[in-house]
């Protein structure tokens, strides 16, 4: 592997609009149930003030992908650029990967009885385009980045957020910028 | 069209075994079903009788046994009062047309994707198969090409071509159309007709539509050379 | 008239076998050589026609006549090639098997017994009913028309044109959403006219007043963020800590409906510190000093703080910052004017903008919306009444339509006697789910003789109709759209054929006209010819051409255009009031029974029996009753919720996830509780929407209480949607 592509999600900018989620569905015209990308709300109680805070997560294209390790039919491969690609034709729908992934990102399609997931729009990336979700993000909270030392040393870049599993398990290729809370004048 | 020797043999045998009437009966049933769906609930007084007749003929000519009771149910409805026909019209629209979300939308692609949209890849694949025969849906672009009525008519067309080729002693043409018919059945009709029939069955209390769903499934099997 | 194949029944039913004899009924021989290859992907320009600030430029991707996906139009300088979550779901709307596909008739209304009818029969039935009512009552006034914002495409005003062309009818007049604010700005400035939202990047200070851009105008966020990167502070004032408020540098949880009191408190402090732009205010307005006297005599910070629940030091802080950080921009949301004093509160905020000289400035403004780019021909809308038509004689002695209040629709329809209303025609409108007091709406529908609805989905209104006519989506039509927020105009091309037998409002009008004139020559003046593109072309005129710098509408196919206007509204100082100045003192307001000055008007107090305020704001996943029913939305947001503050919830013994009954004298709804401190302790929030397979509707408890303003510019006052009081219990 020559590099590791991944996502940088900025909760300071994200307004939880779910545009990324729908842009992904629009690009691949997926069925309704599988959510390759999903916006999650951070819990109010984990922060000093109650605000609407979000993060958006698709497949994290982990450095040590558990899905790839457990798949009995080798449906998962990891590209030179770090993207973990799932081969839909090979998949037998055994769902071992669903159990293995700490982030619940492989999505089972009940109609096709197979798993599907974000392939980081590698076809678009190979053409020099941004992934559909990144291209659609209006507040520019979601970015495609190369995960490396320099990124991790940037101020404010976090490897995890409260409530997420330890990144040590799979070394996910996602980094976060946590929510910023302004001043609130409240009546409660 | 490349075929294995076995397939050619089987088809010849089939062709020999089956009388022309049996083909004709099958074609008539497909057409009657097609008209039943296409002409809509409002025309049931006109489309039910031909459907019943076609199904009855097929049953008599050693058609699928499970059809027998279904045909009887159809027959019981034939002389329905205008009120009953009216109720059947409403039920037809509730199941297949709308304006409320229909319980059993009569389009292939709806059953072949999880939540069921029209105008999907299956629709286009059906359109392509029509095109191979130089045909297209008269309402292409407006009505989904994989509307049940259109698919049934295409099947009837393929069989009628097979039949006429047979009559003209053009065996290779007959084989070609039989093979195309088989391909269309296996790639399309058989891929969804069961699910469609189930949707009808679990959505209606009217024996007519349950019977119809059974006739539809039995009548659209490609494997009638057994 | 072309016969549809459904009319050939007997002829082809007994099809014979044999290739030569095979009678095709649904299939036909292709004239051209068979080509089963995939076509090249084609792209078309579209514009999202929903009732939304953003009115996005769209590119539709079409292959083999099928809509494959929809993206943002990168040539649109405001929406910048991106869509909101709703915009990305359009394939699900176009190809939903739930669409209304054919004209259908219900007997009896509400029974669920539907018969499919041909367009010809539909038009025949409708035309005969219209003519029969006309002959029974001597006019077409028993026919009542209600159309609003389901599709804001200009050609869709052909729905109004349908009515004009048959005679004088009863019309639901008004707009539910924003009229109080419109009137406020009409009294103050002569009309509503906001800065270019892209100009917000130049603001050094930003106050979003009751505005949740993250949900309702998300494409403005990048411009706000740009301003913040340049150092601007963002203040959000809202009783609810919205997604937008969560991003603010300062969020102020104000008491509902007291925004004017906060603005007055700020004004008093600005006055006391002499941060007033006396030159601007005195040169450009009338009555400013009179208002200053009012501030001095009547307003104290104590009072403002008490009223609003905002501490005095905070009032001082934002007053100082707003008055001294120039330019400062204010964006007044539609939510804050949905109160019995909502228009008056907007007038006070306007005055605050004038006082500080922020009006007419780039990076400033009291921004609410505008209609500057809507100067189309309205060709489809304007048709003369047939000769001899009898109309309603208005107070001015003129004969015309009989206007009733859209915002008290059920009541006003029932109140008509001379002649009574007997028939409804609904287009781009779903009062069954969107109007206040759903029970009253249901009763009123039941009292009608005949109801026609044009729609694409089987919503509550269709459910209560005799005839439903299938409407096209905007991908199946030609049209042109403008925005009431940004300055862009875009053409909307027909990207795909209309599905099934769907038709646009203009196509329906043409068919009806043909039928009515066949039955009674001269009974309808609507033209009977014109392609959809021709109808769109006719909406253009020299004014629009010069505004956009084009000489032909086809130039818009290359990309949307932005109107050639200054970034700051009112930069020329030419106000459109009777005095041509900003009217801090408005004689017109006074004449209409309102205070002449932007003074405090009391808010509505909660009745003892119903102490909780129920907010029903716009949802994130839908636009009114559109979008939420689609499968992708049902996955993203499967069920409605009510947001309750934990303190209030505890008082009523309600826990997270409990079913809660919300009720008052009008009706009740049951919905799942979500406990959150993002709402105020005395306010519960449930977002209006129409979910698939659900009768959930917030309007069962909503009384048609009018807001204070709207009559002047829109014909009727708005609805005080947010002055709705209820109580709750565990269901």
Q: Care to describe what's here?
A:
The complex is a heterotrimer of chains A (188), B (226) and C (731). With 188 residues, chain A is an alpha+beta fold. Chain A has a single domain (5-177), classed as Alpha-Beta Plaits. Chain A contains 6 helices and 11 strands. Chain A has helices spanning 19-28, 66-70, 96-100, 122-126, 132-136, 149-153, and strands at residues 5-10, 38-41, 54-57, 76-78, 84-86, 107-109, 114-116, 142-146, 157-158, 174-177, 183-185. The radius of gyration of chain A is 17 Å and the shape is globular. The termini of chain A are far apart. The relative contact order of chain A is 0.27. By secondary structure, chain B is mostly helical. In chain B, 71% of the residues lie in helices and 1% in strands. In chain B, helix 9 runs antiparallel to helix 10 (207-219). Chain B starts with a helix and ends in a 7-residue tail after the last helix. By secondary structure, chain C is an alpha/beta fold. Chain C is 27% helix and 17% strand. In chain C, a hairpin with a 5-residue loop joins strand 15 and strand 16 (399-400). Chain C is globular. Mean pLDDT of chain C is 95; it is low at 1-19. Chains in contact: A-B, A-C, B-C. Chains B and C meet through helix 2, helix 3, helix 5, helix 7 and strand 1 of B and helix 1, strand 1, helix 2 and strand 6 of C. Strand 1 (135-137) of chain B pairs antiparallel with strand 1 (27-29) of chain C.
Largest sheet of chain A: 4 strands, mixed
Largest sheet of chain C: 8 strands, mixed
Q: Which CATH C-level class of the largest domain in chain C is it? A: Alpha Beta
**Considering DSSP H and I runs of 4 or more, what fraction of the residues of chain C is helical?**
25-40%
Question: What proportion strand of chain A?
Answer: 15-25%
Predict the CATH topology of chain A. Answer: Alpha-Beta Plaits
Low-confidence stretches of chain C: 1-19
User: What's the overall geometry of chain C?
Assistant: globular
* Secondary structure tally: strands of chain C: 30
Average pLDDT, all residues of chain A: 96
Task: Describe the structure in brief.
Chain B: Keywords: Chaperone. Chain B: This is Chaperone TorD involved in molybdoenzyme TorA maturation. Chain B has about 230 residues and is an all-alpha fold.
